[in-house]
Write a sequence for this structure.
């Protein structure tokens, strides 16, 4: 632990987090059946959220716009308390450590636009106010505003700041894909993509049929999904870089294929199929070599919605083997084998649990569901089972409306999900550490939300660099 | 008064004059019968007329038979395509569903060229993917019923739309009951129905 980290910890003990946490229970209007052993809402783990301020970025051009995007990103990261006003007498020529210390921030971010050989850069400095020193600095190439890669390049800076301070990946440079009925065509569903901050909503498919259950590849450049466009639901893989599309597995020509999940190696997918003669279950296929269709589970019961663990060694999935009307979440080895119950089933209690999604950073599985019956339908909540926690903890993260299709952000901390509230439908994001919830896209009846891995730009030669990278200037430390 | 009487008298005169005109002499009857050529032509004409009548009668019967066949085919199609319904989160065949399926069974037995695609659907309750699985269970349940009576499984295919294609809008039991269903599409042999 760095001296600075120790100092921060010392301050944690005396300061109360100024962050206003969202308490799910306070807004509860509906009666929800209690699940024994499940704690409601967030688990406040005593993490202090450090205050940060952004000194107005200098150098003209897009400096102010970039600072604004980063400030929003750092707020949405839920790892900083972003001060949205400035102390009087700020001088952007230098760093007034004592002024910022009196203002009560731990961190100060500065940025300066610089141009070199026709390329625009942002030089970023993260100042440790407690120690009156520079913690990190880096130079990031910035495409011009309006360029397709502009916002993504700025989001990468935000993720670098998160990594500098917390040593963990951020999620600003990422996108969310979901399915939705396009306006004016209620019989079809198409895929849409939106940035992690709710900007840049774009349509991704034009199948003019049902496009459902998308999954983002580990390298972030492909989306596998199910489309009914051939008359039979089949899995296709969309390449986001060149816009091409291909069928994934074409040997089993009569099978209906659903809900692909990429193995972390990006070469294999798990999915579930429905075939003639009551044959159904979960299979894997090597999409790189186009071979090796392997069935992991088959049988009378439904075994659907596989989701690979972060190392590919396990699969979470839904099964109704305990009976109709009680689908539950199970975990089995990645190559198939005995399954263990993961969702909170108790005999005689019922319960409906679905949509499992395995965290990319930990042994945590998010899923949707609740104790429901045919009168209380579609009032599901989002749950997380933490298998890394000693008590195999199960946490409920929502307590109103309907909540389905949770998917982990690349930071392993946030979840995106499709929600229905008294004010309408939307795509929502919840921070599993604090319970804070925000509306990502308002007013859309989204389904099948899936969060991408960390993204970098790969189009027309512009490269924004890997997570937390950036070119360190020669004079850095 | 005297003027109208005069008119009446004039009318009577005209009537009497017309009635009393003598008839013209009747024409002389033809002294000879038809020639052999004429007889032969008449014979041929009568044969043609009889044949024409028979042909028309045959065509009429054909038309009626075809109409009957079409009516039967339409009735068969109607029975084959009649949607069946299910209970909440269930794929088991209800008694009313069984009756509908038995009617289909008879037609399928008599028309071995007919192939069907079963399209399974669910109501809006539950998650969308679970409902896809549920819709398929319903389609497969129907196929299992039919093949249980000895029909070839190769004649049937299934596809599930889950909750994506409701026929009734609304969040109430009346709408849900209509949406929990299996629809039938004739994919082959439909033109041979009724023959």
């Amino acid at each position: 632990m760095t001296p600075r980290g120790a100092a921060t910890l010392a301050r944690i003990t005396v300061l109360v987090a100024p962050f206003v946490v969202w308490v799910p229970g306070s807004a509860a209007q509906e009666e929800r059946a209690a699940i024994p052993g499940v704690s409601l809402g967030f688990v406040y783990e005593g993490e202090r959220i450090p205050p940060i301020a952004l000194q107005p970025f200098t150098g003209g051009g897009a400096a102010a716009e970039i600072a604004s995007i980063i400030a929003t990103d750092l707020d949405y990261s839920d790892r900083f308390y972003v001060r949205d006003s400035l102390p009087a007498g700020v001088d952007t020529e230098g760093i007034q450590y004592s002024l910022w210390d009196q203002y009560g921030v731990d961190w100060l971010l500065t940025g300066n636009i610089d141009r070199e050989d026709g390329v625009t850069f942002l030089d970023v400095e993260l100042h440790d106010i407690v120690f009156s020193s520079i913690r990190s600095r880096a130079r990031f190439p910035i495409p011009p505003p309006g360029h397709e890669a502009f916002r993504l390049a700025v989001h990468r800076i935000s993720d670098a700041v998160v990594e500098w301070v917390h040593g963990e990946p951020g999620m600003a440079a990422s996108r969310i894909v979901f399915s939705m009925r396009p306006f004016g065509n209620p019989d079809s569903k198409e895929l849409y993509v939106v940035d992690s901050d709710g900007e840049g909503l774009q349509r991704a498919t034009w199948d003019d049929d049902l496009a459902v259950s998308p999954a983002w590849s580990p390298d972030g450049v492909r989306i596998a999904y199910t489309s009914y466009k051939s008359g039979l639901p089949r899995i296709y893989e969309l390449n986001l870089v060149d816009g091409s599309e291909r069928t994934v597995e074409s040997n089993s020509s009569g099978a209906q294929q659903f809900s692909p999940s990429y193995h972390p190696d990006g070469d294999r997918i798990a999915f579930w199929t429905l075939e003639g003669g009551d044959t159904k279950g979960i299979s894997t296929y090597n999409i790189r070599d186009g071979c090796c269709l392997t069935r992991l589970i088959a049988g009378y019961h439904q075994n659907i919605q596989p989701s690979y663990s972060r190392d590919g060694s396990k699969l979470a999935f839904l099964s109704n083997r305990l009976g109709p009307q009680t689908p539950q979440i199970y975990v089995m080895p990645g190559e198939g084998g005995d399954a263990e119950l993961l969702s909170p089933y108790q005999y005689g209690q019922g319960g409906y649990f679905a949509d499992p999604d395995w965290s990319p950073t930990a042994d945590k599985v998010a899923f949707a569901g609740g104790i429901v019956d045919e009168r209380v339908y579609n009032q599901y909540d989002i749950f997380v089972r933490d298998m890394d926690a000693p008590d195999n903890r199960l946490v409920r993260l929502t307590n109103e409306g309907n909540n389905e299709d949770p998917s982990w952000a690349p930071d392993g901390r946030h979840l995106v999900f499709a929600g229905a509230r008294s004010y309408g439908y939307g795509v929502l994001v919840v921070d599993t550490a604090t319970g804070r919830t925000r509306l990502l896209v308002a007013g859309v009846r989204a389904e099948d939300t899936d969060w991408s891995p960390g993204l970098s730009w790969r189009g027309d030669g512009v490269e924004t660099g890997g997570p937390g990278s950036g070119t360190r200037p020669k004079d850095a430390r | 008064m005297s003027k109208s009487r005069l008119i009446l008298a004039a009318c009577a005169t005209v009537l009497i004059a017309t009635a009393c005109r003598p008839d013209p002499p009747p024409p002389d009857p033809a002294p000879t019968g038809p020639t052999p050529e004429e007889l032969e032509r008449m014979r041929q004409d009568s044969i043609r007329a009889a044949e024409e009548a028979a042909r028309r009668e045959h065509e009429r019967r054909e038309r009626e038979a075809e109409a009957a066949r079409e009516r039967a085919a339409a009735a068969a199609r109607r029975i084959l395509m009649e949607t069946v319904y299910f209970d909440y989160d269930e794929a088991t065949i209800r008694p009313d569903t069984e009756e509908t399926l038995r009617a289909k069974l008879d037609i399928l037995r008599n028309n071995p060229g007919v192939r069907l695609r079963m399209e399974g659907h669910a109501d809006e309750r539950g998650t969308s993917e679970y409902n896809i699985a549920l819709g398929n269970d319903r389609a497969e349940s129907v196929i299992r019923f039919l093949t249980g009576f000895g029909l070839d499984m190769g004649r049937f295919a299934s596809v599930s739309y889950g909750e994506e294609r409701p026929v009734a809008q609304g969040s109430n039991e009346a709408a849900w009951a209509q949406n929990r269903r299996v629809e039938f599409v004739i994919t082959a042999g439909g033109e041979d129905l009724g023959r």
